[in-house]
């Protein structure tokens, strides 16, 4: 019998997964500087997936409250799209880290192409280890759809607290199973965790997790309707459109791993998304 239970993500393997996804997207024309879900403010919003992805970054920008004098850490920075948007919209300096070497190469190239090499620097690193930054060195930390790959959330958030300056904000999204929790969870959630090397957060423990890390909670929101559920619907629509082969739409999100396709989660209301804001006291 094959064991289909998700295993605990290992950073080096997560790095290889994103190396592969980045190379594939660069070569098949599906490259997107954002590697995350979209955010639609209202059910009748007609924003495209690309606009909705930028909208999610803009929500992070509002919540971080940064300006041209700020230094922002982008934890799990992808290929730099969100970080470069922070630079462009606020003038803040951004340092990003990702476990994928390929993403870091790409992010630094995009920063140079945008003329932001002096404001944005991306480096390879494992956010589940001690972060290579001094205490209190950042005014804000953003973790956009990255902490789900870091099973030791406690270690990560404790380090985030250490590198934040007093009053500095953390904004993150995370995935969790929505209530009522089923005795057997939807198979699409296991496929997601296995294929994308992720774990689901425990929402009941999230406030305590932040407090144990030394952070003060400012807000925790279930944004499933605005993000994951709507993203699933939009991808399904794209896949159904005659002139777009489903395989290409599946890759739009860089979710091109053999074992997982966004349609596995289409309409799965149990697959939730949290938007969390906290600060270092
Ligand atoms: C879904 S992507 C999100 C990328 C980016 N935040 C964005 O929104 O475009 C997840 C990111 O988390 C990073 N990541 C996962 N585990 C990591 C770890 N242990 N240390 C550093 N980065 C990690 C991946 O390399 C990838 O860049």
TrEMBL record:
InterPro entries recorded: Erg6_SMT_methyltransf (IPR050447), MeTfrase_dom (IPR020803), Methyltransf_11 (IPR013216), SAM-dependent_MTases_sf (IPR029063)
Keyword S-adenosyl-L-methionine: yes
GO terms for MF: methyltransferase activity
Domain of life: Bacteria
Keyword field contains Transferase: yes
Signal peptide as annotated in the record: none
Pfam families: Methyltransf_11
Coiled-coil region(s): none
Positions of the Polyketide synthase-like methyltransferase domain: 56-276
Keywords: Methyltransferase, S-adenosyl-L-methionine, Transferase
CDD domains: AdoMet_MTases
GO biological process: methylation
PANTHER family: GERANYL DIPHOSPHATE 2-C-METHYLTRANSFERASE, ZGC:194242
Protein name: Methyltransferase domain-containing protein
Taxonomic source organism: Streptomyces yaizuensis
């Amino acid at each position: 019998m094959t064991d289909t239970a998700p295993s605990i993500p290992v950073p080096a393997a997560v790095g290889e997964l994103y190396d592969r996804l980045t190379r594939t997207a660069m070569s098949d024309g599906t490259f997107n500087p954002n590697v995350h879900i979209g955010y639609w403010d209202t059910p009748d919003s007609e924003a495209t997936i690309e606009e909705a992805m930028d909208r999610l970054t803009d929500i992070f920008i509002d919540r971080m409250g940064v300006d041209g004098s700020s230094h922002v850490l982008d934890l799990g920075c992808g290929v730099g799209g969100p970080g470069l948007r922070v630079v462009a919209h606020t003038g803040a300096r951004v340092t990003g880290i990702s476990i994928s070497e390929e993403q870091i190469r790409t992010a630094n190239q995009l920063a140079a192409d945008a003329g932001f090499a002096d404001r944005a620097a991306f480096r390879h690193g494992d956010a589940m280890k001690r972060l290579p930054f001094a205490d209190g060195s950042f005014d804000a930390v953003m973790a956009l759809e990255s902490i789900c790959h870091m099973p030791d959330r406690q270690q990560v958030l404790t380090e985030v607290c250490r590198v934040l300056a007093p009053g500095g904000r953390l904004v993150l999204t995370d995935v969790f199973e929505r209530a009522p929790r089923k005795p057997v969870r939807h198979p699409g959630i296991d496929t997601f965790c296995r294929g994308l090397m992720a774990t689901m957060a425990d929402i009941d423990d999230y406030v305590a997790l932040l407090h144990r890390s030394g952070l003060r909670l400012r807000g925790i929101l279930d944004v499933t309707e605005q993000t994951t559920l709507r993203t699933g619907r939009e991808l399904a629509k794209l896949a159904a459109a005659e002139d777009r082969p489903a395989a290409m739409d599946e890759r739009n999100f860089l979710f091109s791993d053999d074992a997982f396709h966004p349609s596995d989660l289409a309409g799965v209301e149990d697959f939730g998304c949290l938007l969390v804001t906290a600060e270092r006291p």
